[in-house]
Amino acid sequence: MSIETLKLCGIIILLAPLAAAVVAGALGTRVLKSQTHWVTILGVGSAFTCSCLVFNQVVGAPAGESMATIPIYDWIPNATASMFRVELLIDPLTSLMLLVVTGVALLVVIYSRDYMRDHGQPERGYERFFAFLALFVFSMCALVLGGNFILLYLGWEAVGLCSYLLIGFYYDRPTAAAAAKKAFLVNRVGDFGFGLGILLIYLTFGSLEYTAVFDMVSRGVDAAGNTVPSSTITTIALLLLCGACGKSAQLPLHVWLPDAMEGPSPVSALIHAATMVTAGIYMIARCGAIFSASATAMTVVAVIGAVTALFAATIALVQTDMKRILAYSTISQLGYMVLGAGVYAADSAVFHLFTHAFFKALLFLGAGSVMHAMGGIIDLRQFGGLRRVLPWTFRTFVIGSLALAGFPLFSGFFSKDEIIHHALTASPVLGVMALVTAALTAFYTFRMVFLAFWGRERIPEGVHAHESGGWMLAPLMILSVGAVFAGYLGVHAVGGGFHEFLAPVFEHTFAAHRHVTHVAGVEPTLWDEYGLMVVSGAIAILAIALAYVLYVPQRWFPALVKASAVRTHRTLWNKYYVDELYDAGLVSPARRAGRVCVGLDDYLIDGLVWLATAIPRGLGYSARVLQSGFLQGYGVSMVAGIAIIMMFVFWS
Amino acid sequence: MEGILTLVIFSPLIGVLVLLLPGVRSDVAIRRTALGCTLLTLAITVMCVVAFYQGPPEGEPSGPYRLTTHMAWIGGGSSAESVDIDIGYRVGVDGISIWLVALTSLLTPLAIWSSFTSVQKRCREYYALLLLLQVALLGVFCATDLLLFYVFFEFTLVPLYLLIGVWGGSERRRAANKFFIYTIAGSVLTFAGIVYLAYFAYSVRGRLSLDFVFLKQLGQSGAIPFEVQWWLFVAFAAGFAIKVPLFPFHTWLPLAHTEAPTAGSVMLAGVLLKLGTYGFCRLSIPMLPDAARHLAPVVAVIAIIGIIYTALAAWVQKDIKKLVAYSSVSHLGFCMLGLFSLKVVGVGGGVLYMINHGLSTGALFLLIGFLYQRYHTRSIDEISGLARRMPWLAFFFVFFTLSSIGLPGLNGFVGEFLVLIGAATSASTNDGIAAGPLGYGYVIPAATGIILSAVYMLWMCQRVLFGPLNEPRDTPDTSAGLTHDLTRSEIGMLVPLAACCVFIGVYPKPLLTTFEVAIRTNILTSTVSIADAQPIRQGEHDAVSLPGSASVQLAAARVFGTGLNDSELLNRSDDAPRSIIQNTVASVGCREGIHGTTCIQGTVASATCRERIHGTACVGHREGVHGTACVERRKRVDGTASSGGVGR
User: Fold this and answer.
1) For residue B624, is pLDDT > 90?
2) Closest listed residue to residue B229, CA positions, set B301, B150, B286, B191
3) Is residue B220 over pLDDT 90?
4) Residues A19, A43 contacting (CB under 8 angstroms)
């Protein structure tokens, strides 16, 4: 790899979107106006081109040389400890992430050109939208390109900021403003742990550079050569996991992601499905050395992933807002990825991240297209049978759904199957949870598809439904190609080299600890190789069939179930009351504590201050009696004073 | 450059004098005079910063302070008298105070500019007082004599008292009185402490001097017994803690802020509060090192309680200004935590935090002032959805909110991060400074403050800026034409602050390098450090041990820049004579600390400054500094130790 080329590309990948953001923000409202999207397309497009170049370099690198650290400049000089540099790390994982981020971002920006116009007129804040989008691409690239934990944290917070700004895009809608704040704050809670983890890394190893830290972790020593206790590593890993739970919306910090759907649909597709929310998985994969060194932490990771996957899938069963269903599905799929990392199959997790980026972005953009056609309505109860009204949206949406549901030979099928396979190998319980989740996924996905596109054509009153234009359909089509074929990159049988490509990243971390799946020398049987594929494929097909039966010909049945299990339905509908729990358990007590603090300030502390001043004041009052202004009084006291002095003088 | 600091300090007085001229009559002329005068001060300050940054001219000795001026005031002239009295007009700056001077010079013109539309009554007095306030503030940061420091320190009260009491809100008198009495009650104790310290110095050294350098040497030589240090620390803290303000002495601040005019709030939050933290950092920590070390956990715990307590209190405020005032208390708790980590990183973070807080909170108070001018209310309940009507105001509000809650890439983050690192690594001795008493356990509760600061600031943004537009009914004052977005000049006031925020966030190096030099020279006690000129491979470490009885805690400065590690602590015993530790400076990348006058006995160097040290630095060890073997180095250190009067 040529370091110079990589450095140049890395800088362009960062600066092009940043420049686009600045230009769009500064000139958007005055000069560019309805043409602002070109700036962002240009910026993100250059970033994408450079990402391709970087990817090409990494692919072409000879074995063992696919990683490079590129210093840019000194950020925080710290002579005593270590220098915090702005430096880039480029390796197969980074180059892949860059490709996903800039690629999906480019499609989303193209899509947004039409989406953010209301009947030919740009929406209010059109310029702002593109500026924020470009800023997001910059932040996300900084996150994946950064060569140390500080830059990771910088990107981490910056994508959170963009998410905040874009969720709150329709800021005069109170729900949007509240959702934006909630997203930022819940992430802050995660970042609290994440930041403490980074500090603990610094405290333990005296450095925050990836290469240095991971090297020390894998040797189990700190900078001075002392052995690091495994409990410290576990603590670090769990603290980092906190951050991942926040950003990747895992239990118990998942609550912000469904609300984040208040943002425009392209934002949901880009930030809250394909890229930002996968930052947690990226981080776990990147810190493989730390995580895989602690079996306890890995167990926690796996359990959180599996439970989240199942938990979110059950909620998705009953929701009626298309975007929210997709949001819960995203949480669930992220759960799969976390589970994958937790069972030492980080390459499979990244593989699922890769395929998921295609089909989930596709689904969100498709849902956006539906929403666009329905005049902003996205509730499944208000429309249906859109098959003929939105033919292309329908076709691409079904492709995306098949991929999500794990329908055989679509991309999601391969990647999800790998994770289930590894989970089953690691622990039957986790494996079964993953399989159940797979069934639920197929069911709720097609429940949504059938409700939206099948049946009698129903369109909300006063809405002129129309298929979207080319700017929106083109990205859908490109993504659906990816949703079908991306999975084959990971299939050896057809020459996919995805895992080999990533292997250098994980060979000393996750891969070194992975459970041996088959004994060396013994050829894996046909069942080992394909048995699970058959099972999970069958599950997906059956679940889709069940959804068809229930939601197309037998529409009365779901209502019956709902009526007979009112309580369960209500629990699921209210998302297990987690929001209410947080409100009652954390927010209200904290507000009350705040009021107590103010009360203490106003009464106790100020009261004490008043008391302290009361002493001199009291003395003053008592002395005031003497200063009455009556001349006789002064005369008497003067005489008395003289008398006392005289007595002193004469006696002594 | 002789006397340039004096010029900086007193240049606002020119403005005061001009304002007193009978010819300057119209309000417009008064405003222009005041603004022009502060801009002049700003220009001179910039020259100062440049001169400081360029380093001393060739051949000129550089002491711990730069750009110094010394004039005898009391004593110090002909030493015919038996008592050696040396109290003088001493001014000088180091890497810390220069930036605080710059902050003051930057904020004052903005505060004055912001008053153009909002202050209509008694313009002449108003601007004269603001200029006087600036004189006092600049004086505090430049003074290097304790008495001069105290004079300026107290003098800040007078202009601000009048500014709040005359131009304030409806409860201005009560607020002004409370502010004045509260702060003066504390600083009287500080004064008692200063007098006693002077007396004590005289009784030990036979010299009545209040020179910072002298007092620091006195404190670090161990001449002041621990009990005395303890009492002095408490006396100093009485004044400084109220000024910071530390919990539970903070109740004057929200009131003073809500009642103060915008410019008063900007100066109060932006600069005046830093007098407290600056006092701790400049006086308590270097002059009373043992007490500071001993009491650091107490201060840290109080700071942490304050961080959380006031953050919670901020969350339930209805008045935007009061909310930001409470947030100030919370943020300065962070600053204190950094200072009392007693580590180069942490103190540097704390100092940076002072500057960051001045920039972002100053800007927030400006914004709140603009808002108040438009709506005559600051109630969160009465205003909402302003982003629609005032996109620029919303932009800047969100920007400075983000800076204040420590978003990486903006200034707040760097300070916060360094403070937390400092507190976490307090116990390590990697930087050649004796171990501090804090640790990771202090970081965890403090870090909750980071969550809480985001909670209340974003909560306020959500309520005020977002949601459906809601304006108070009888206002806005349409006659003043102020319902629209920020005017050009208002944006002009915010842009410099925003630019500084971005600059410090992206490239804090220029500040941090100067901080480090100043901290090592003027704030913290260095243990004797020797150069690790020998390249050490990464991961390995070099245990150098000193033979003999003069066992000294040695920390080899870390070699860096080449990716090399590391350092090692040498055998240490508690009977290590203090005089050897005294006056030594670990100089990593520093120029000032190296000079022979500072490094008398022990010494210092590190690989980064090899070239600079070589030849110009430490008396008597030119070669020792330059990459020589351990044996040789050891010999030299021993040699100095004995020549320094410690012997073996």
Assistant:
1) no
2) B286
3) no
4) yes
State whether A172 and B424 contact (CB < 8 Å): no
| DSSP letter string, B187-241 | HHHHHHHHHHHHHHHHHHHSEEE-BHHHHHHHHHTT-S-HHHHHHHHHHHHHHHH
Q: What is the pLDDT of residue B550?
A: 27
Does some domain include residue A30? no
Give me the sign of the Cα torsion angle B434, B438, B440, B444.
negative
> A150 vs B458: CB contact, 8 Å cut-off?
no
If you average pLDDT over residues A343-350, what whole number do you get? 89
Does residue A565 share a domain with residue A610?
A: no
pLDDT tens digits, A277-286: 999 999 999 9
- Domain co-membership, A510 together with A645: no
- Is residue A532 domain-shared with residue A602, that is, in the same domain? no
B174, B242, B251: best mutation site toward chain A, by most A Cβ within 10 Å?
B251
Residue A288 has pLDDT above 90, yes or no: no
Q: Which of A573, A593, A612 is the last residue of a domain?
A: A573
**A498 is a domain residue:** yes
Q: Is A633 found in the same domain as A596?
A: yes
In terms of Cα–Cα distance, which of A319, A289, A284, A290 is closest to A304? A284
Confidence of residue B161 (pLDDT cuts 50, 70, 90): very high
pLDDT for residue A628 is more than 50: yes
Residue A199's closest chain B neighbor by CA? B421
How many whole angstroms from its chain centre is CA B184?
Answer: 21
Give A221-248 pLDDT, tens digit per residue.
877 778 888 888 999 999 999 999 999 9
- Cβ–Cβ contact A392 with B under 8 A: no
pTM to 2 decimal places: 0.84
Domain limits for position A462: 345-515+525-573
Instruction: Tell whether A467 and A410 lie within a shared domain.
Output: yes
What 3 state SS string does B474-521 have?
CCCCHHHCCCCCCCHHHHHHHHHHHHHHHHHHHCCHHHHHHHHHHHHH
Closest residue to B408, CB basis, from A153, A168, A606:
A153
Question: How far does B557 lie from chain A, in Å, by closest CA?
Answer: 7
Domain boundary among A548, A573, A598: A573
CB-nearest to B588 from A80, A172, A605 is A80
A569 and A628 belong to one structural domain: no
* Strands A84-90, A117-118: pairing kind: unpaired
Which site among A18, A22, A80, A135 would you substitute to test the B interface, given the most B Cβ atoms closer than 10 Å to its Cβ?
A80
Residue B449: its chain A contacts at CB < 8 A?
Answer: none
Residue A500 domain-assigned (yes or no): yes
Do A607 and A554 reside in the same domain of the chain? no
Question: ipTM for the complex?
Answer: 0.85
Beta-strand (E) ranges in A14-154? 68-76, 84-90, 117-118, 121-122
CB contact under 8 A, A177 and B462: yes
Say how many C-beta atoms besides its own lie within 10 A of residue A648's C-beta: 9
- A483 and A437 co-located in one domain: yes
- 3-class secondary structure, A495: coil
A224 touches chain B (CB under 8 A): yes
Is residue A340 packed enough to be buried (19+ CB in 10 Å), middle (13-18) or exposed (0-12)? Answer: buried
Say how many domains are in chain A. 2
Reported confidence tier of residue A83, pLDDT bands at 50, 70, 90? low
B447: nearest CB among A157, A178, A196? A196
Question: Does residue A177 fall inside a structural domain?
Answer: no
Distance CA A301, CA A285 (A): 12
Residue B168 pLDDT level (bands cut at 50, 70, 90): confident
Query: pLDDT digits over B460-505, tens only?
Result: 988 888 888 887 776 555 555 556 788 888 899 999 999 999 999 8
Considering only CB atoms, which chain A residues are within 8 Å of B424? 199-200, 202-203
Residues of B in contact with A191 (CB under 8 A): 450
